[in-house]
Each structure stands twice: as C-alpha cells, then as structure tokens.
C-alpha cells in the first residue's frame, strides 16, 4: 500500500484556527494532515480555547514564535517552517487568509519547491499600507492552487495576471460558524456573565493595525463610541487593550453604556453577536459572521469582503467624520438583499475534494 499523502496546514492566528477546524479532519480521511501552529497567537483566550471549542487536534508542531515586529515575526516563522518542511517533506502546503503566518508558510514552501494551496486567495482591499494586503498579494503570487471565496476574488487574481488553478469554493470560516450557532446559543452564558439583555446592545471589535497603531484613529473610534445612545459590548484584543492604555484613552471607556471584556472564546462570541442589534468592527471574519447572522455591520476600514456590502448589510464608515459616524452606527439599516456568497457550510468539503481530484490525484 502506498504511503498516505502528507498535507501541511500552517496556522498561527485566531481566525485561522476556525478556518481549518473542519478541513483538518476531512483531510485525514484520505491523507495525513500535519498541523503546524506558528505560535503567532499564544494567549489561552486567543489560541487554546479555540482548539478546545472547535475540536481541533493538537498541532503536530508549535513554533512558538510569539510577538515581534512584522519582519522579525515573519522571519522567525520562515526559519522554523523551513526546517520543519525539510524534516516532514509534505506533498502540499496549505496556507489560509492573510496573516504573517500565511506569508511565512508560502515563502518557506516555494523555496523548497513544495506546491502551495492558498485558502481565501484573491482577496484585496487595494490598500498597500496594510500588512494583510501585502501578505495577500505576495502569497497569491507564489501560490500554485487558489481557493477563492467568490467570483470577485477570481477577477482580482486575473487582474494581476493569475489565470490558472482557481476554484470558487465559498467561505471557509462560515462552515464552522453555521455548524455551531445553535450549540453556542445553548452552551454560552455570556449574556448572563456580562449582565446584558438580548437585542439591547451592539458589539464592537477593534484590532487591525490601521486603527490601533494610530492614536488618532483609535481616539476617533472611542470618542464616537462614548457618544452613542446604545449599549456597547467591547471584547478587546490584547494589543488593542495595550494601545488604549499606552495612548491614555482608557477614560473614553468609563461611560456606563460601555461593557468591556477580554477576548472571548468562540461560542461566547457567536452568542454575543447572534443576540446583538448590530456590529461595529474592523475584523474581516466578523464582517462575514454578521452577514451570516443577518446583523447590520459597520466596518471601520476599507473591506476586502466586498460581497458583504451588497444590500447595505455591511457599510464602510469614515471614522473621522464624527457626526456622520455616530449617525451611521445608530441609524444605518440595510436596504436590499444580502449576498449569499458565504455558501452552504460545505466549503471544507469542496476544498478537500479538489485537493484529491486536482492536486494530489
Ligand atoms: C493578526 C493578523 C490579522 C488578523 C488577526 C486576528 C497579521 C499581520 N495580522 O493580527 O490580520 O486579523 O491576527 O486576531 O498577521 N497578542 C497577545 N496575545 C496573543 C496574540 C497577540 O497579547 O495571543 C498581542 C501582542 O502584543 C502581539 C500583538 O498582539 O505583539 C500582535 O499580534 P499579531 O499576531 O502580530 O497580530 P494581530 O494584531 O493579532
């Protein structure tokens, strides 16, 4: 009997754990998945709790690179991944999304002539100042197989001269999300823990560098939030919490209508969003989860998930026009039909099938 094909999956940041959760089990039915955690996210709340709740097997390797500047973090991952790939000799490397872990995985693989598949290929927000946009572009230009969420991503790739091995598969993070909405509603006590009522609040998340590395941007957001006439629940990413302290902005969060917490486990976050009125975010994943839940979403940056904008279900805000920003948060309502690009929750199966029929056949 021939040996099973080995497929390395490189993950490192919170949303990537969600994205590979179902795929890793599916790959293991026919092949052998090697799960490699770069260690980009390392706090229990940012990493282990997701592995536990999503039933993800323990990683085969953890590089434990931890925090650092973008260059240092990516370089540490690259070094670690290269020696792991040499040791493990995978037949395919799968990278996901747009983080430094994605870029490092793809770079290490191409230098060793290992085929690369990129999940969420072709996403662009056309803002080259953002680390994620650079990670997306470089990763796609060294990738061999492109799993694109929707037609728009395929078009973006075409516009950059990439016109081969592209497959439209829907949205991979939606798979685990829809599979767990009911379970989260049953098992999470987050509303009771935070002392909030269903439909009585909006959810706020902030963590993208455009909003956290700039004191002016973070202050603009917090000032607007302070003015809101509605309860705001704000689970803060550790870096965002650090920036708020460093910039001396914490007093904006003292208002009675603001409820703060640390990063929440997956099920708590799902239940919190499901019972909210609307969502204010700069996260890519949360924009899609808002759409899946049919919650209006206000995005505090330029989005790469342009499909979410259809029907006004998601809208990009100018955080520096305070009156308009506050008005948008309080009064924006979708006016049309939402996009159905997220798919049926079977993206991981489509990707698995394509891997065995088109890549490792
Ligand atoms: C990364 C991704 C971003 C993604 C996000 C999801 C890049 C360039 N960015 O951003 O696209 O949306 O993950 O969360 O890859 N930290 C902790 N504990 C942790 C993890 C991080 O305290 O478990 C703090 C540290 O101060 C660290 C900082 O967050 O230096 C930045 O973490 P990093 O993984 O570099 O970027 P994110 O902001 O999480």
* Average pLDDT over all residues: 97
* N-to-C CA distance: 16 Å
Compute the number of helices. Answer: 15
Number of DSSP strand runs: 13
* H/E series: EHEHEHEHEHEHEHHEHHEHEHEHEEHH
Pick out the low-confidence regions.
Answer: none
Reported for the largest beta sheet, the result is: 7 strands, parallel
Strand order of the largest sheet: 3-2-1-4-5-6-7
Please give the radius of gyration in angstroms.
20 Å
Q: Structural class, from secondary structure content?
A: alpha/beta
Shape from CA axes? globular
Helix content: 40-55%
| Share of residues in strands | 5-15%
Please provide a written account of the structure.
With 361 residues, the protein is an alpha/beta fold. Helices cover 45% and strands 15% of the residues. The protein has 15 helices and 13 strands. The protein has helices spanning 14-30, 48-54, 70-88, 100-111, 131-142, 151-159, 172-187, 190-194, 209-212, 215-227, 238-246, 266-274, 284-292, 322-331, 347-359; strands spanning 6-11, 32-37, 61-62, 92-96, 116-119, 145-148, 166-168, 201-204, 231-235, 258-261, 278-281, 297-299, 314-316. The strands form two sheets. A seven-stranded parallel β-sheet has the order 3-2-1-4-5-6-7, with helices on both faces. Strands 10-9-8-11-12-13 form a six-stranded parallel β-sheet, covered by helices on one side. Strand 11 (278-281), helix 13 (284-292) and strand 12 form a beta-alpha-beta unit. The longest helix has 19 residues, at 70-88. The chain is globular and about 65 Å long. The mean pLDDT is 97. The structure holds uridine-diphosphate-N-acetylglucosamine (UD1). Residues 13-15, 40-43, 46, 67, 73, 98-100, 131-132, 207, 238-239, 242 line the site of uridine-diphosphate-N-acetylglucosamine.
